[in-house]
Design brief:
Elements (H helix, E strand, L loop, with lengths): L1 H14 L3 E4 L2 H11 L6 E6 L9 H9 L3 E4 L2 H11 L6 E3 L13 H11 L7 E6 L8 H11 L6 E6 L5 H10 L6 E5 L5 H6 L2 E4 L9 H8 L3 E5 L4 H4 L7 E3 L4 H13 L1 H18 L2 H25 L1
Parallel strand pairs: 1-2, 2-3, 3-4, 5-6, 5-8, 6-7, 8-9, 9-10
Helix pairs in contact: 1-2, 6-11
Length: 312
């Protein structure tokens, strides 16, 4: 790593960039140290993940001394870095990752009927679903428990789980043990998730603890699914309870079941939340919106550096 620092420092001396923006742990350690003392006017450390940043001397150096600005993708990360590492609030900018919105989406009824055909079901069936990595942090067993508890009250709804991961076999066994293979469908990985979002009445994200601003939920909101998420990580950044979706506590299948029923049994209120969620994504969470926010921070940081240089 020491050699990498010296090689990058030589490149930075030659290129003289206006902005250096590092992202991962290794490139931040190399890049920020290499830039130290080179008078690069805008040096940024981006933190994408949500587990807490340890309050170690080297993290304090990277975040407080060697960075002009810290980008995070969720407000909970910004709060933790300010609280534990002492980075001033005005130097931390929360910029959630935006989504690439398709120009055309399949008609919702067409998507629903196609999914019913794929599963060998009648075309009047409805779908609640999850799309994403099937890992322990996503809490998918809680989703299965919540659906199983109310399946008889919503006989026309099926639960569809799209994705793969290290819990896929365990979930398959959980569904089989409950005898719910005809109501809960594990589809595995799909290259194109958009038709599945469009087929779902409700998209659910049951993350247990660490979660940034989830791309899957933003995609579901853009696809005009009603969304339900757990009140953890960056999910509350995009789901305003009762306005753009519903929030429930993590690991609480009873509350999740209630949210399912509330969404299904109150269609007018649900339609209003869906419309508000779509508008929120179009306004704040596209790739273009994210890019504009990042460029604004670059420009303001460069302007401040120029003023400081002129006054020195």
């Amino acid at each position: 790593m020491v050699n990498d620092i010296f090689r990058l420092r030589a490149i930075l001396r030659q290129v003289r960039p206006d902005v250096l923006n590092t992202h991962g742990n290794t490139d931040s350690k190399v890049g920020l140290v290499a830039a130290w003392g080179l008078s690069i006017p805008c040096v940024i450390r981006t933190r994408h993940s949500t587990p807490p940043v340890g309050n170690s001397w080297h993290n304090r150096l990277l975040y407080r001394r060697l960075s002009d600005v810290v980008f995070t993708t969720a407000a909970c990360v910004s709060r933790q870095i300010h609280r534990d590492l002492g980075v001033p609030e005005e130097r931390i900018k929360t910029v959630p990752s935006g989504i690439d919105c398709p120009a055309d989406l399949l008609d919702r009824d067409v998507a629903r009927i196609r999914l019913a055909e794929e599963l060998g079901l009648d075309d009047h069936q409805r779908f609640i679903g999850f799309v994403g990595r099937i890992t322990g942090s996503k809490g998918v067993p809680v989703l299965i428990d919540a659906f199983a508890a109310i399946k008889d009250r919503i006989p026309d709804h099926h639960l569809v789980i799209v994705g793969d991961g290290n819990l896929f076999t365990e979930l398959t066994r959980q569904v089989a043990e409950r005898g719910l293979q005809t109501r809960i469908h594990l589809l595995g990985y799909r290259d194109d998730p958009w038709p599945y979002y469009r087929a779902m009445d409700i998209f659910v994200l049951t993350s247990l603890r660490y979660e940034g601003v989830p791309q899957s939920m933003l995609q579901a909101m853009f696809a005009q699914c009603a969304v339900i998420g757990t009140d953890v990580g960056g999910i509350p950044d995009i789901v305003s309870h009762g306005e753009t979706g519903l929030l429930v506590p993590p690991e609480d299948p009873a509350r999740l079941s209630e949210a399912f029923l509330h969404t299904i049994e109150n269609p007018d209120a649900t339609r209003k939340r869906v419309a508000s969620a779509l508008a929120e994504v179009q306004r704040e969470h596209t790739l273009s919106a994210m890019g504009a926010k990042i460029l604004t921070v670059y420009e303001r940081t460069l302007q401040a550096a120029e003023r400081d240089s002129n006054s020195a």
